[in-house]
Amino acid sequence: MVANPTELITSDKNNTVKLVKGLLTQARQRKKHSQTVLEGVHLIDAALRSDYPFAQILLAESAHTHPEVGQLLTRLPSHTPITTLSDSLYESIRSLGTGIDIMALITIPTPSLPMLAEDCLILNDVQDSGNVGTLLRTAAAVGIPHILCTSATAQAWSPKTLRAGMGAQFALHIYEGLSIQDILDHVQAPLFATSSHTDTLIYQHDLTQPIAWIMGHEGQGVSAELMQCATPIALPQPNGQESLNVAIAGSLCLYETLRQRKYATL
């Protein structure tokens, strides 16, 4: 049974239901309310492991008896509000397919950008949520703690990016809505960026000191203003492809950085 049981909600006119539906589907609603939604047990588990607070839990009536749901709910702080929706209502608002019908409403963190002399990843107008989520997941895996997102970058805390990142967001410090000048004013580590206009391969660079990696827009690449301040590097493409997907390129750069620092003698 669920702790903190509530009455069953069946109407899509319910204010919480309308809010969650808007947060799941509209970037402007997430910005307006500074909130987002975690769907499914994996993301909720990731938030719980990071001690991230929940504003509210919503679940389908049939999910009450699911063992994974029961385990999650026993780990919640006792004051966490829990709202039960009829199965048909929950199905009408969810953005995931068939699965374990539980979601959580959370507040999006908005940390202030500090001066950074350590490793960071700059996402310069990376517009695809899948690419952003993949880069966040890779950064968390290799130990890059800070993610700086310029204003046209896909929302790091959107439901789609959260799913692509598999909850990596909870292991990172993410700064969104930044201008190029914000980055130049606060990032003290050397800037490195992939470029098709250099012949110097990544393997010819010493990546053992703190680095600010820049990954750019899927079509236009890194902005000229940032590129002027960065060291350009090339990834080898002996078969002559025009370019790599930004998430693949970024992952290769981050893992070469890790290799040089910890595995160079292997």
TrEMBL record:
A single GO BP: methylation
Keywords: Methyltransferase, Transferase
Residue stretches making up the tRNA/rRNA methyltransferase SpoU type domain: 121-255
Domain of life: Bacteria
Gene Ontology MF terms: RNA binding; RNA methyltransferase activity
UniProt domain MRM3-like substrate binding: residue ranges: 14-93
Record carries keyword Hydrolase: no
Family per similarity comment: Belongs to the class IV-like SAM-binding methyltransferase superfamily. RNA methyltransferase TrmH family.
Protein name per UniProt: RNA methyltransferase
